[in-house]
Sequence to fold (480 residues):
Amino acid sequence: MNHFNLMMILQTLIDFFEGYFLQQLYSDFFEERFQRKEWNNLGAIIIYVAFQYIKKLILPADYRMSHIAENLLLTCFFLLFLGVCFYKKTGAVSIFLVVSFMAVQESSRILTLIFPYMADLLTDIMRQHAERNSFFLTVMIADGIWILAYSIRILIMGFSLKRIRENFHERHFCIHSAELQFLLIPGLSSLCVSILLDLIMFRTDEGGREEFLFDAYPALRLFMPVMLLLSLMSILYGAKLFQDMVLLNRERNSRAVLERQIKSMQEYMEETRRVQSGIRSMKHDMKNTLAVIMQLAPEGEGKEELFRYLSGFHESMAALEYRFHTGNTVADALLNRKYHEAMAAMPDLKIDADRLLFPKTFAVEGYDTGIIVGNALDNAADACRKLKIQQPKAEIYIKLSSFERRNMFFIEVENSFSGNLLVESWSEFPVSDKEQGEIHGMGLANIKYAAEKYDGAVKWEVRGTAFILSVMLKNEKKGR
Fold:
């Protein structure tokens, strides 16, 4: 095969694989704009290959600064435009993806220049020591090394971009300007290194001959690949470091919220005990007082009216009692408080907790019970509220139940919801659609944290338009 034709085929393959890697990158972060996913992705690849072909016609290859800048700017704007055309809600993270893609693309391209240099050296050695009829053998070896160089280029790009996709698992995190700058620095640094190498890769000696950088500085044969590989690693580890920071920050926020919830729960428990004790004492005294008043009231028509008045007053006092009785003071307090809060916003909400019964000897601490029941109720009420907004005539309900199996205690919370959940492979729980994406899923994470303190676990499932949360706890005293 003609060497020129071989290079054209190899470059076309490179363009195709680059387009494939690009659409994979976009597809992992964004939703396809068109209904048929296959046509959406194929269209992105075809347009990318066409763009590369047209760009080579418009911008002939040379290593002048103006050409390099035009090439990079044109590519950058095209990649951003391609993302907007084929994918929805691209946002600020698309800038990070484009810069990282271009940095990996340029670094892998320059790395492949090492192999043609090796091919030239090997060909010259064979020409000096081999017979004339070995010409075709030397050409085949040279072409083989070119094929190897382009294969390694594809592997480097595929591996690097795959690692970025895997490391960047918090794809719904709301990226602000400071975080975007942190993410862009490794990619922009790598691009600057590539531009510098392009500018100095070839030079003209005193005799007017073009000289390769390796010929002038042999030490760069080792130094340049190491430098490029390090720049690639900085992009990969930059994304991983950013994700680790997001997870650490989320964990800290989750722990802070959990600590506030525990403190609030303890204060609420003490206040509830005090108020309920006062109400019980008042009711006891009031019964005796009402009995005395009825005995002392004079006979006649006024006594019957007084009796009705005092009966109504007694019923009003009875209304101060808890609506729900589970056998657990904390659960009763939470259920009654959140019931009144939910009914104020959703009068047609049905809450059934008749089957939520706690054993007399319950090993779980009060504040842990509060974290589990409180967060589960908050999530269920929030789901019902969203369903009511979307479907005003929909039936909304929350059902709580419990049962025991040997030394294991199970709490189950079922609620109606819209039927739509955002589930990501990197997340154990459904992803919330709250605007503050950095705190989504914190309620379920806190439930899991509390359950794991008692060798328990959390499981969720969907049955039609019912979301069911199950919490398992070991009902045994544990040392802290």
